[in-house]
């Protein structure tokens, strides 16, 4: 019998940030952070400094995803170590500034936890995005959140893919947590989506408070969806898309996609089928911002990760 | 009602991308161009991407809303260096498909739009026109899998500001819900069918068929309601209430919840029974509209047919 007596200990999580407006047209995060900047009572927890922060104010003002370049791809080592200068794209300057305030990335001074609030046009429901399968603290937090909001569902997307992984704003922190809630159109605020995100954050902060007070979280299994590959739209020689996500796949995030299932529909009505070798679980289906990133959806596979028990040092 | 006759509708314009982030119309036009659908029987079809710069940037507009630039005043205003792109473009379109109000204008202009509101398939008429209302009646009878609704705005010819007013006859096809920047297959298929049915009707009309007198239900917009706002900053302080969200065309009555504030209070509707539409349309935040309210009316249509020489 395998034993799960490996235990991890972490220092208390004292410095926590909540990022909104990393994409300026994803309204739940923008609205929540603006609310909490005015009155942060709701996000206060004993012994934790929780800082709400608008990461991309110019994009928020224009209600656009980004001004020059995607902020949520801008936290690469090259960008962060590049010399400061006004000639840098706005978001690269922002990334450097954010790295100064909440980082430096990879150093002991970096913030303990950063929650980065996002919306998607995809029918993903509530999703937590995990960047490392080895982050026991995050795995335990996500397990806590999932149990706390049950029977409502909150799924975990693991993006550890060496090529598809990207340099997110939250990656500055020791424990980066992405919150992705959809479906919501860009520029629109839906009450149910807003309140769902608010509830997830409440539980996340409760977890941190309990952890800091000394609670031990026993070993647990967490179901995750691991990113496998990005599937683009069929395109013509000029790069224009020649088909749309098929009606049978549209809105079916997290449902099994089997070889032979309809995947795309051309503009003149023909069906293009999925040619994979096995069943996958697609997500980020028809996300508005990903047309330019050559992505109609990503495929994932289901995995169970074991989190060791954790307690504070 | 007295029978009405109209000249043949032989020149049609199908326009998409009037708002550059409303993707359905743009792809319908592109597909029609790819299929080289420019002459079918008695009808010659011109397809136009109305706002190509906005389409390239995937934004509603670059400087000003193109679909408000077709007033007589703006169409005749002198072009200077400071003239917004969309005003120039409106004048270009007026040359291509108009001039508005003249004999050379296209017979019918059909403008394709999307909304983030849960409105399904709607046809929008800016004025009472028996011909286009008969097209609506036909489409509504043929597209039976979901409701097709008529929205009647009452804008006089002299005040008309939108693209379809360039044609001798015109209407907008508005389909939702679809986020900006996204093309959904189900929405595309609906819009494409509506365009195909329109052309089908025109062939019948041009060939001499009589379309019988009848009745259609339509929604006439009475007023708009803005979001609750902070009096000092004018920032929005509430979201559309979950019980109103997605319930376009469901009768709203006194006491029904309409907003849920960020601090948890419910704001209730006060007023006469009306039908809400364009609930939570993205582009209307800046126009200070959370939703429109409309009356439902029954409009009688006379029988119509083509004028015989």
TrEMBL record, chain A:
| Keywords per UniProt | Cytoplasm, Hydrolase, Metal-binding, Nucleus, Zinc
AstE/AspA barrel-sandwich hybrid domain mapped to chain residues: 221-301
Q: What is its main location?
A: cytoplasm
Q: What cellular component terms from Gene Ontology apply here?
A: cytosol; nucleus
Keyword Metal-binding listed: yes
**Residues binding substrate, per UniProt:** 72-73, 166-170
Q: What class of enzyme is it?
A: hydrolase
Where, by residue number, does Zn(2+) bind? 23, 26, 118
Cofactor(s) this protein requires: Zn(2+)
Q: Where is the Succinylglutamate desuccinylase/Aspartoacylase catalytic domain?
A: 13-208
SUPFAM superfamilies in the cross-refs: Zn-dependent exopeptidases
Q: Under which EC number(s) is this enzyme classified? A: 3.5.1.15
Q: Which residues of this UniProt protein bind N-acetyl-L-aspartate?
A: 65, 180, 290
What NCBIfam families is this protein classified in? PRK02259.1
Q: Which family does it belong to?
A: Belongs to the AspA/AstE family. Aspartoacylase subfamily.
Protein name per its UniProtKB record: Aspartoacylase
Q: What is the lineage of its organism?
A: Eukaryota, Metazoa, Chordata, Craniata, Vertebrata
Automatic annotation (TrEMBL), chain B:
What protein name is recorded for this chain?
A: N-acyl-aromatic-L-amino acid amidohydrolase
Q: Which NCBIfam families match?
A: PRK02259.1
Compartments, record wording: Apical cell membrane; Cytoplasm
Record keywords: Secreted included?
Answer: no
Q: Which reaction does it catalyse?
A: an N-acyl-aromatic L-alpha-amino acid + H2O = an aromatic L-alpha-amino acid + a carboxylate; an N-acetyl-L-cysteine-S-conjugate + H2O = an S-substituted L-cysteine + acetate
- State the UniProt keywords alphabetically: Cell membrane, Cytoplasm, Hydrolase, Membrane, Metal-binding, Zinc
According to its UniProt record, the EC number is 3.5.1.114
One Pfam family name is AstE_AspA_cat
What HAMAP family has UniProt attached to this entry? Aspartoacylase (MF_00704)
Q: Where is the Succinylglutamate desuccinylase/Aspartoacylase catalytic domain?
A: 9-198
Judged by the first EC level, this protein's enzyme class is hydrolase
Give the cofactor note.
Binds 1 zinc ion per subunit.
Q: Which residues bind Zn(2+)?
A: 19, 22, 113
Catalytic residues (positions) = 174 (proton donor/acceptor)
Q: Which residues form the AstE/AspA barrel-sandwich hybrid domain?
A: 215-296
Note the topology in the membrane. Peripheral membrane protein
Name the needed cofactors.
Zn(2+)
What species does this protein belong to? Answer: Eleginops maclovinus
- Molecular function GO labels: aminoacylase activity; hydrolase activity, acting on ester bonds; metal ion binding
């Amino acid at each position: 019998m395998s034993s799960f007596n490996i235990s991890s200990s972490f220092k208390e999580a004292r410095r926590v940030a909540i990022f909104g407006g990393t994409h300026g047209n994803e309204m739940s995060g923008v609205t929540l952070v603006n609310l909490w900047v005015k009155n942060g009572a709701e996000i206060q927890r004993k012994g934790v400094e929780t800082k709400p922060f608008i990461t991309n104010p110019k994009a928020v003002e224009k209600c656009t995803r980004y001004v020059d370049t995607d902020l949520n791809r801008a936290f690469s080592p090259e960008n962060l170590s590049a010399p400061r200068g006004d000639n840098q794209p706005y978001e690269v300057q922002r990334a450097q500034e954010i790295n100064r305030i909440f980082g430096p990335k990879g150093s002991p001074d970096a913030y303990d936890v950063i929650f980065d609030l996002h919306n998607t046009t995809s029918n993903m429901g509530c999703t937590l995005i995990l960047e490392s399968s080895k982050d026991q603290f995050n795995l335990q937090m996500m397990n806590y959140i999932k149990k706390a909001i049950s029977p409502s569902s909150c799924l975990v997307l693991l993006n550890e893919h060496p090529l598809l992984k990207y340099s997110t704003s939250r990656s500055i922190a020791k424990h980066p947590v992405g919150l992705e809630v959809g479906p919501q159109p860009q520029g629109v605020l839906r009450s149910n989506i807003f309140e769902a995100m608010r509830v997830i954050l409440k539980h996340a902060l409760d977890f941190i408070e309990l952890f800091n007070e000394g609670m031990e979280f026993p070993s647990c299994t967490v179901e995750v969806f691991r990113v496998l590959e990005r599937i683009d739209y069929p395109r013509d020689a000029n790069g224009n898309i020649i088909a749309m996500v098929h009606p049978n796949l549209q809105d079916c995030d997290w449902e099994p996609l089997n070889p032979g299932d309809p995947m795309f529909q051309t503009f003149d009505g023909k069906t293009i089928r999925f040619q994979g070798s096995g069943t996958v679980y697609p997500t980020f289906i028809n996300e508005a911002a990903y047309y330019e990133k050559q992505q109609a959806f990503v495929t994932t596979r289901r995995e169970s990760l074991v989190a060791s028990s954790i307690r504070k040092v | 009602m007295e029978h009405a006759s109209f000249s043949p509708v032989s020149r049609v314009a199908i326009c998409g991308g009037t708002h550059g982030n409303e993707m359905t119309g743009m792809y319908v036009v592109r597909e029609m161009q790819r299929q080289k659908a420019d002459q079918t029987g008695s009808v010659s079809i011109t397809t136009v991407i109305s706002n190509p710069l906005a389409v390239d940037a995937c934004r509603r507009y670059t400087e000003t809303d193109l679909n408000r630039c077709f007033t007589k005043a703006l169409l005749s205003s002198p072009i200077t260096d400071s003239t917004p792109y969309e005003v120039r473009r409106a004048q270009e379109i007026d040359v291509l498909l108009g001039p508005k109000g003249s004999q050379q204008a296209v017979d019918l202009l059909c403008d394709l739009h999307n909304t983030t509101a849960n409105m399904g398939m709607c046809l929008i008429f800016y004025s009472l026109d028996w011909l286009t209302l008969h097209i609506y009646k036909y489409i509504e009878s043929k597209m039976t899998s979901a409701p097709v609704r008529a929205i009647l705005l009452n804008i006089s010819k002299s005040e008309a500001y939108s693209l379809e007013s360039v044609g001798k006859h015109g209407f907008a096809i508005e389909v939702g819900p679809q986020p900006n920047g996204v093309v959904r297959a189900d929405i595309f298929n609906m819009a494409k069918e509506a365009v195909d049915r329109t052309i089908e009707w025109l062939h019948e009309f041009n060939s001499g068929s009589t379309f019988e007198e009848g009745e259609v239900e339509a929604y006439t917009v009475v007023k708009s309601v803005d979001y609750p706002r902070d009096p000092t900053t004018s920032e929005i302080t509430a979201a559309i209430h979950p019980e109103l969200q997605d319930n376009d065309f469901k009768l709203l009555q006194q006491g029904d919840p309409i907003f849920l504030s960020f601090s948890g209070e419910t704001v209730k509707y006060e007023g006469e029974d009306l039908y809400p539409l364009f609930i939570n349309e993205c582009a209307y935040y800046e126009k200070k509209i959370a939703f429109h309210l409309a009356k439902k009316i029954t409009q009688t249509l006379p029988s119509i047919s083509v004028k015989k020489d």
